[in-house]
Specification:
alpha/beta; Rossmann fold; 16 helices
Length: 426
């Protein structure tokens, strides 16, 4: 019964995202891809993707981002276009065979895609002149010095490979890499657009910003405090409850003089955390701290134990939430109309620390409202704990999602929007 209600609510959410001509303007703000309006038969489509997949010994250990790109690739190939596929993997400073995009070839071939690998841009150009309904996979964008240098010459080299430009790399929209920004500008406004994945991501996030179903519960974990604070600030007038998990919660706790032991904190954000707590109280937003923690003693590899929140000792390192917290939070999550979860709780590679994470995901899966998870670690945890198919939406973006929901401009999106009128300006 709960799953049936959740499916109905998710369908309602998607319909409301699409909107209609009679809906109020605030309800109709959306971003649409130009791709379906293009005539791409026998044309080359330069597709910037985010296939920064986790690897182990040159093997893909999670293909979530590859699967997420399939709609766009399938559309281009089905309409007799050729895909010039560009992505990055990792953060290499120079050529590294362990991060070559050639590693992706077996996955594409396994899934029946006609694909060839271009060893360099000249090779790609020659292949592109004769390719028909095919994928030409470029080498790792970050192997090229011009990618991180905003190099106009490199942008021109990339642009000559395509007749159209599509950015479907949602996870890199907040980056100003050459293939994300300058390369797009080499194409006329009418020949550059977002892909179907980015369209879906943005319209889902717009719904969170403009009309989330209430009660809206925000769950925040992970350790990048400075990255997550703007998210909390920007959503403060939209949420009813915020559940703060390790490690971000310890900076808030220290800000109000509570014991944090040797847990991870960001001393530069203490005043900001204090301000957020004051503002939340004024706006009648409930910010809940865990009432007990799973802690490691001495070091993060030390023995694990459960302690009440007010009994953390100087040698304790907070890792996850405890069972009393889980019992307190589960009803809140299960009754939510919208749940947005960013940041993992515990360590993905340490199963003993994932009980709290699993409990949060379990409660989300049972809630009648719409559940959304964003961030590489939290999405990976949902997959590893077998909850990926029980959550309504998994976002491919981590930093990009945070930046967008925090109200920041996304360079990759700004350049697509410029002079294209692609977005409803309402």
């Amino acid at each position: 019964m709960i799953m049936h209600i959740r499916k109905i609510n998710f369908l309602i959410l998607m319909i409301s995202i699409i909107g209609n001509s009679k809906a109020p303007k605030a309800e109709r703000i959306r971003m649409d891809s130009r791709l379906p309006s293009w005539h791409i038969k026998n044309k080359r489509v330069f597709l910037r993707a985010d296939l920064n997949v986790p690897l182990e010994n040159k093997k893909i250990i999670n293909d979530f981002r590859l699967q997420s790109l399939r709609d766009t690739i399938d559309y281009i190939l089905a309409h007799d276009g050729t895909v010039i596929l560009a992505t990055h993997i990792g953060r290499p400073q120079k050529y590294d065979p362990n991060l070559s995009t050639e590693i992706l070839l077996p996955w594409f071939k396994k899934h029946g895609y006609p694909i060839v690998f271009a060893k360099d841009l000249d090779d790609a150009y020659q292949k592109s002149k004769t390719a028909k309904k095919q994928i030409i996979l470029l080498e790792n964008m970050r192997f090229f010095p011009g990618e991180k240098k905003n190099d106009p010459s490199f942008a021109q080299q990339l642009a000559r490979l395509g007749d159209f430009y599509v950015n479907d790399a949602f996870g890199t929209l907040h980056r100003a890499d050459t293939s994300v920004t300058l390369a797009a500008q080499e194409f006329p406004p009418e020949k550059r657009t977002i892909g179907l994945l980015v369209e879906k991501e943005l319209n889902m996030l717009k719904k969170l910003l403009h009309n989330p179903a209430q009660p809206f519960v925000l769950i925040v974990g992970g350790g990048k405090v400075a990255d997550k604070i703007p998210l909390i600030q920007n959503l403060l007038d939209k949420v009813e409850t915020i559940l703060l998990c390790p490690a971000i919660v310890f900076t808030f706790l220290k800000a109000i003089g509570k014991p944090v032991g040797n847990s991870l904190i960001d001393n530069h954000m203490l005043k900001t955390c204090e301000t957020i707590l004051t503002q939340a109280k004024k706006q009648k937003v409930s910010i809940l701290f865990p009432i007990d923690f799973q802690v490691a003693q001495g070091s993060i590899d030390g023995p694990l134990t459960i302690v009440p929140a007010d009994e953390i000792t100087p040698d304790n390192i907070g890792i996850s939430i405890g069972p009393k917290t889980i019992a307190q939070w589960e009803p809140i999550i299960k009754q939510a109309g919208t749940i947005f979860f960013n940041g993992s709780v515990g360590f993905t590679h340490k199963p003993a620390t994932l009980t709290g994470m699993g409990s949060i995901l379990s409660a989300m899966s049972k809630a009648p409202g719409v559940s959304i998870i964003a961030g590489g670690d939290s999405v990976a945890a949902a997959d590893n704990l077998n909850f990926a198919h029980q959550i309504d939406y998994l976002s491919t973006g981590g930093g990009a999602t945070l930046a967008y929901l925090s109200g920041q401009k996304l360079p990759g999106l700004t350049v697509i929007n410029k002079d294209t009128n692609i977005m409803d300006k309402s």
